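Narrative summary of target 7.
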Amino acid sequence: MSKRRDGSEATARQSTMCHGCGGQGHLLEPVCAVIGGSGRSLPQLRPCRWCGETGRVPGLTPPT
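Modeled conformation, tokenized:
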């Protein structure tokens, strides 16, 4: 658990929106593809590794 500014412990119910995915639980990752004979990049969804697809991280964490 993380400590709050006043020195008390954060409870398990308190959470912060994930700063990695913006609360979506997934990230768009560009991948290379060949479509119609030309190279392009296509977006692909992948799970967020910081929040585990929940969109929230435990505790109260300021963005860094």
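The chain has a mean pLDDT of 83.
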